[in-house]
Amino acid sequence: MLEKYIKAALGQEACSLVLKNAKYVNVFTHKICTGDIAIKDDKIVGIGTYSGEVEIDCTNKIVIPGLIDGHVHIESSMLTPEGFAALVLPHGTTSVIADPHEITNVSGMDGFNYMVEASKNVPMDIYMQLPSCVPATPFETSGAILDGKTIEAEIKRESAYGLGEFMNYPGVLSCESDVLRKIEGALRENKIIDGHSPFLVGKELNAYLSSGISTCHESCSVEEMQEKLDKGMYTHLRVGSYTKDLTLVKAINNDNYHRVIMCTDDKHCADICYQGHLDEALRKVVKAGLDPITAVTIATINCATCYNLKYRGGIGPGYYADLVIIDNLKDFNVSKVIKDGAVVAENGKALFDTTKRYLPKSVLDTVHIKDFTKDDFKIRLKGTKANVMTTISGGVMTGLEVCDIKTQGDDVDIKGTDILKIIVVERHKMTGNIGKGLIKGYGFKGGAMGISVAHDSHNIILIGDDNEALLKALNVLKENGGGLVLVEKNKNKVYSLPLEIAGLMSNIDPLDLVVKSQALFDKAYEMGVTKDKEAFFSLMFLSLAVIPHIRLVDKGLVDVFKFSFIPLDADE
Q: Is 237 helix (H, G, I), strand (E, B) or coil?
């Protein structure tokens, strides 16, 4: 096995592939180097002057290591693992650290097992982490529960590469026994534990890190990120569809950049297709002022080092031949992608079979809802003031505003205001739970819109200004087995996109999914969704009760700072 690499490196045996006349980013010494990059089968064997069975002229091009996404929820793309690979590999992403937290909250270990098996069908490294917080909080109803005993057993599996983002930081700080059992189980198996700790600083951050958690992708300020870096935490620079942490570029300097890694976290299929994946992230962070070689380093070798991906993330003899050929270090336009020595994408197109897919029945038929009437969407206030959720431009944070609300009969009157009803309906166990709230600043008018993708327990989220339209939207999602829906009241029209896999993903062709989803996004903007929001996908974070400030779950309004429920009625 080793003999072929050694002989090819010495020029005694033919190389399989040689990238001739290459300029490449040396992430080991932070400079641009030149030379032929010689590849034998799946590995780089030399830099210098070589000839090969196949040669690619890289004159006027730049070669960088294959890009590595340090934290991603594949389900948020609405694509299967096979469809996800078909879209992101042409953009230079050759490896991902995936947390199937979303589907596991719906389908439990059946969902995790599905993601593992489906990932075997693609020429891409998908390292699957075992979700740590199912459910994410005690406030909501999820489709499954992975307790400490389950995590302790399942983390031993080879397919469980690590423990996914530990969002229950209050549970860590209060030393809850079941929480510590999960962490201790991962530590015994010597597996990395990803973190999730927005606003955590000082002694609370010290305590969180003392548990053995290694990373965080939720820094909310430059100062917070720098403190996390100072204390040895690997910190993700996140550029996704919904959260683009570009201001955090200011936290990165020559002394700490080796502890920063790149991730997308959540990125939907249309964004990937039209804008890119980690290649887009590189464009944005460089435009924001980050040195291009530093940016490439963050998106490659740093992630490989953090997650112990041996011989990945760099260009050098003995490293796996995961390589991306780009035009320059500003635009990062990808012309060819090489994975384990084989060209797998060229000029934006995948060169491998994208139709081979694994789909068990265990992740289908997951939307189970009790029957409702339009009167169930009425909101009755005791007084004239309400705690209203506000949206914040450019991210997933929300605010709280006490607003004067008119009432007509036994329902709120929101006509002529920038306020909508927001509804969360439990969809796993037919409990009949329905959370009701009010939201300001989303912009939508004239009906209802809904989605069965709702971090993290993935109950159904609806917003709208008409009870009949809200009921119609809910029933369409029920009939479709989940997905996206728009109800245009005045035209009596319904637009929908089924997501039949756990109510999260679709098995149709990735490009068809892109076109159909984009049509729905465009319609949502036409109906008033403000342009600073991601149509539909800003909705799915509104029940995420681990991100400040106010969230709505199937059991009511949650104040994340207080980590407790609050009433919809505000003090007079």
A: strand
Q: β-strands 15-26, 62-65: how paired? A: parallel
Contact between 406 and 412 (Cβ < 8 Å) = yes
Beta strands in 426-563 (DSSP E): 434-440, 447-451, 460-464, 483-488, 493-498, 550-553, 556-559
Beta-strand ranges (E) seen in 370-428 are 385-391, 398-404, 406-408, 411-413, 419-425
Give all domains of the chain, ordered by start, each with its CATH number.
Answer: 65-310 (3.20.20.140), 364-566 (no CATH)
Tokens of 515: 């076109």
Which residues lie below 8 Å from residue 543, measured CB to CB, with a gap of 6+?
140, 424, 435, 454, 455, 457, 459, 461, 551, 552, 553, 554
Q: Specify whether the CB–CB gap between 171 and 139 falls below 8 A.
A: no
Let me know: does 430 contact 371? Beta carbons within 8 Å: no
What is the chain's Cα-based Rg?
A: 24
pTM for the complete prediction? 0.93
Q: How confident is the model over 247-292, as pLDDT tens digits? A: 999 999 999 999 999 999 999 999 999 999 999 999 999 999 999 9
CA distances from 336 to 63, 91, 218, 322, 490 (A): 10, 9, 32, 11, 49
